[in-house]
C-alpha cells in the first residue's frame, strides 16, 4: 500500500503533546508548540499544509496515547514523509519507547525532526545522535540482561524452576512436583516410541483419539510429542539458558553456554531409557515412505547391486495387477541392471530370514552388537564428562566476572570431579551381558514375526523400524537383514 503514495503526495505531520502537570508546572502550551512547528515549516520552504496531531492531557510515560497511535497507523500506511516535534520528550520521556518509535519511522522512510535539539534523522548529525541514543539504550539493555542472568543463574543452581511447568509436573513454590496422572502418560509416550516403534504423528493421533488432554488442553501435535521425548526434564535435569531470545529469531546457543543442573527435581523417565530414546531420534531417520507405504518393505528394501531403494511397481492388466519391488536406479535412470522381484515373494523371504536369524544367532554377531552397544555407552559417558567440564568452565567465568561467590565455584569443582570419577569408573567397568542381549534380540524377532502375520502393514512396519535398519536383496531368496543396535 505504501507504494501508492509518492513523496509529493505524502503529508507532513506535527505532533504536539502536553500533560496536565506540565501545563501547570512548565507553562507548556499546545498553541505555542503548533506555532513554532508551523514557523519551522515555513522557514524550510515547505508549503503544504501539515496534519496536526494534538495530545492534550496525556503523559509521555507510555505509548498508550490516541493521537500517537493514530499517527503511527498513518506512518505504517505510508502517507507521511516527515514528523516534527518541538522537543524529543514530546514523543516520549522514556528512551526505550523513543527508540521503538524512531525504528518504526525509519522502517517506513519517515524523517523525524525535533526543532529544539536540531535533531533530524535525514541529516548526518541527526543520525549520529540517533546512534548515540541507540548505544546508550543497548548498554542499559546489557546491564539489565546481566542482572537478570545473575538472578536466574542463582535460582537455577538451587533447583528452582524458572518457567511454567512442563507436562508431567506441577509447579509448587517454584519447584517441580510430579503430577502422577500426567507422568503415566509421559511413560506411555516413551514406551510407544521406544518399544512399539510409533512415530511422533502416530503417538499424537493415538492420544488425541483417546481424549487425553495436553497441558494447555490444545491437543497433541508432532511438535509437542517431539518436545516431550527430547526434554531432559524427565530424567531430572534442569537446562536453562539454552535458547538465545535476544532477537526476533530464536537460536539455540552452544552447549557450553547452557546452565545444566543434574538431579534438580524428581525424575519420571530413568536416564538409560531417556538416552535410548535420544539415540533413536538422532539415528538416520527412516524415509517417510517407510512409515506410510502400504507395502511391508517399502522404504527398507535396498538393491544389492547399486544400493538404491527398491520401490513398488505394478504389472499386468487392471483386473489382475501384481506388485513387484524394482530398483529405483533401474526404473528411473537405467543405470542398474537389477531385475524386478515379486513383492509377495520378497516379503516371504524376509519372514523366513527373520526365522533363520532367530535360530542361528551366532556368537560373533552378538559380540559385534555388544561392542557397538559398548561404544555407544562410552560416547554417552564422554558427553557427560565434557558437559561437567563445560559447566565448571562457565562457573570460573562467572566467578571472574563477580557473578558468583568462591564457595559456589568450589562446589561446582567438587561436583565436576565427582561426575568425572563416577563416569570413568563406569567406563572402565562397562560390561555387556551377551546372553541377555541375545535373549532380548530373539524376543524382538519373535514379536516382529508374530506382528507381520497378525497386524495391519502400517503397524507391523512400526515394529520393523525398532529392529531393522535395512533389508538388502542380492538375488532370488538371497536377502541380507541389517539390524539396528538393541
Automatic annotation (TrEMBL):
Residues 166-287 form the Recombinase domain. It comes from the Bacteria. The keyword DNA-binding applies. The active site is at 19 (o-(5'-phospho-dna)-serine intermediate). Residues 11-159 form the Resolvase/invertase-type recombinase catalytic domain. It holds the Pfam family Recombinase. One of its GO terms (molecular function) is DNA binding. One of its GO terms (biological process) is DNA integration. Keywords: DNA integration, DNA recombination, DNA-binding. InterPro entries: DNA_bind_recomb_sf, DNA_bind_recombinase_dom, Recombinase_CS, Resolv_N, Resolvase-like_N_sf, SSR_resolvase, Zn_ribbon_recom_dom. This is Recombinase family protein.
Amino acid at each position: 500500500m505504501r507504494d501508492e503514495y509518492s513523496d509529493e503526495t505524502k503529508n507532513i505531520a506535527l505532533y504536539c503533546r502536553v500533560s496536565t502537570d506540565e501545563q501547570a508546572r512548565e507553562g507548556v502550551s499546545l498553541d505555542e508548540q503548533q506555532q513554532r512547528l508551523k514557523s519551522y515549516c515555513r522557514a524550510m520552504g515547505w508549503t503544504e499544509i501539515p496534519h496536526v496531531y494534538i495530545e492534550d492531557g496525556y503523559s509521555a510515560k507510555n505509548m498508550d496515547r490516541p493521537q500517537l497511535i493514530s499517527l503511527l497507523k498513518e506512518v505504517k500506511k505510508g502517507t507521511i514523509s516527515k514528523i516534527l516535534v518541538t522537543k524529543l520528550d514530546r514523543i516520549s520521556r522514556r528512551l526505550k519507547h523513543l527508540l521503538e518509535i524512531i525504528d518504526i519511522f525509519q522502517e517506513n522512510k519517515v524523517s523525524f525532526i525535533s526543532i529544539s535539539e536540531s535533531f533530524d534523522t535525514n541529516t548526518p548529525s541527526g543520525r549520529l545522535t540517533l546512534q548515540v541514543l541507540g548505544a546508550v539504550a543497548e548498554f542499559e539493555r546489557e546491564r539489565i540482561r546481566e542482572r537478570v542472568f545473575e538472578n536466574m543463574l542463582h535460582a537455577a543452581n538451587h533447583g528452582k524452576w524458572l518457567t511454567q511447568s512442563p507436562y508431567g509436573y506441577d509447579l509448587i513454590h517454584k519447584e517441580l512436583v510430579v503430577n502422577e496422572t500426567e507422568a503415566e502418560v509421559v511413560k506411555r509416550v516413551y514406551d510407544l516410541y521406544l518399544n512399539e516403534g510409533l512415530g511422533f504423528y502416530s503417538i499424537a493421533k493415538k492420544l488425541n483419539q483417546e481424549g487425553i488432554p495436553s497441558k494447555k488442553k490444545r491437543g497433541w501435535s508432532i511438535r509437542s510429542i517431539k518436545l516431550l521425548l527430547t526434554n531432559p526434564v524427565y530424567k531430572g535435569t534442569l537446562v536453562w539458558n539454552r535458547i538465545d531470545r535476544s532477537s526476533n529469531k530464536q537460536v539455540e546457543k552452544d552447549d557450553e553456554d547452557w546452565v545444566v543442573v543434574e538431579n534438580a527435581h524428581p525424575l519420571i523417565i530413568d536416564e538409560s531409557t531417556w538416552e535410548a530414546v535420544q539415540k533413536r531420534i538422532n539415528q538416520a531417520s527412516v524415509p517417510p515412505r517407510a512409515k506410510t507405504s502400504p507395502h511391508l518393505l517399502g522404504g527398507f528394501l535396498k538393491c544389492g547391486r547399486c544400493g538404491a531403494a527398491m520401490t513398488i511397481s505394478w504389472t499386468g492388466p487392471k483386473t489382475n495387477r501384481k506388485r513387484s519391488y524394482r530398483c529405483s536406479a533401474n526404473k528411473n535412470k537405467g543405470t542398474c541392471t537389477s531385475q524386478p522381484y515379486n513383492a509377495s515373494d520378497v516379503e516371504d523371504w524376509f519372514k523366513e530370514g527373520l526365522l533363520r536369524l532367530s535360530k542361528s544367532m551366532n556368537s560373533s554377531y552378538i559380540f559385534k552388537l555388544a561392542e557397538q552397544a559398548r561404544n555407544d555407552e562410552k560416547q554417552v559417558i564422554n558427553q557427560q564428562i565434557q558437559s561437567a567440564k563445560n559447566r565448571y568452565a562457565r562457573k570460573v567465568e562467572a566467578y571472574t566476572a563477580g557473578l558468583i561467590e568462591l564457595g559456589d565455584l568450589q562446589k561446582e569443582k567438587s561436583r565436576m570431579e565427582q561426575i568425572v570419577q563416577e563416569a570413568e569408573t563406569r567406563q572402565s567397568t562397562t560390561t555387556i551381558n551377551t546372553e541377555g542381549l541375545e535373549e532380548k534380540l530373539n524376543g524382538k524377532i519373535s514379536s516382529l514375526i508374530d506382528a507381520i502375520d497378525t497386524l495391519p502393514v502400517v503397524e507391523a512396519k512400526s515394529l520393523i523400524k525398532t529392529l531393522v535398519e535395512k533389508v538388502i536383496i542380492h538375488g532370488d531368496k538371497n536377502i541380507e537383514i541389517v539390524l539396528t543396535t538393541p
